[in-house]
Write a structure and sequence with these properties.
By secondary structure, the protein is an alpha+beta fold. The protein has 3 helices and 12 strands, in the order αβααβββββββββββ. Helix 2 packs antiparallel against helix 3. The longest helix is centred in the first third of the chain and has 18 residues. 25% of the residues are buried.
Length: 204
């Protein structure tokens, strides 16, 4: 059932992306967009697709991020056991919901590409139980490419590596440029590798 729900969610996301073949616009003020601008555009594209109905069960976390952003902008406290950190300087956002021993975490960040014309945006969503990553129904890692000229962002292939979901989790960088890949062993131990960014793609 979990695999079926995951397949349905990703299918709905792909339908929404297909309905926006030319991408979706990133609105911003100032000289260039920030992680907050990218995140708002990305979340809006999921919750308000042009031609498809959103898949509600898998998107509640993104609705929660929207509400948390509004609360922060108004100087209001977030709901209990929910945290939102937006680091504009480092281009990083992280949102967490905690429930006893369970944590649902979403990270977003972006990289400047070497051509100076594009930016790469990523969203990583992972669930943790008793401090160990588990593959929740809607967990995963996705990438989007932003075009500086058109001010639009569209889904793109994972740049340079394949995302593995068995006993793996992916942490986006708040500082630096590299993605941390953690392998969780059955005995409770974990090992980590770095996916290094070279301005075009990632590699070990």
């Amino acid at each position: 059932m979990k695999r079926l729900s995951l397949a349905i969610f990703f299918a709905c996301c792909m339908l929404a992306v297909a309905a926006q073949e030319d991408g979706f616009r990133v609105n911003y003020q100032g000289a260039k967009p920030t992680i907050k601008d990218f995140s708002k555009a990305y979340i809006s594209s999921l919750l308000n697709p042009e031609d498809e109905e959103p898949e509600g069960d898998g998107l509640y976390m993104y609705e929660s991020i929207q509400k948390a952003m509004v609360c922060q902008e108004k100087g209001q406290p977030l709901e209990k056991d929910k945290t939102l950190t937006i680091d504009l300087k480092n281009g990083f956002l992280v949102y967490e919901e905690k429930d006893d021993y369970y944590v649902n975490r979403i990270e977003m960040c972006y990289w400047n590409e070497a051509d100076g014309k594009h930016k790469l945006f990523a969203c990583s969503r992972w669930s943790f139980e008793n401090g160990k990553a588990i593959l929740g129904q809607y967990d995963g890692l996705s990438f989007y490419r932003y075009d500086n000229a058109t001010k639009k962002m569209s889904r793109c292939n994972t740049p340079g590596f394949d995302v593995e979901y068995l006993n793996k989790s992916y942490a986006l960088p708040r500082t630096g440029k590299d993605i941390t890949v953690t392998t969780w062993e059955d005995n409770g131990k974990k090992t980590q590798k770095m996916l290094k960014w070279n301005g075009h793609r990632f590699s070990y």
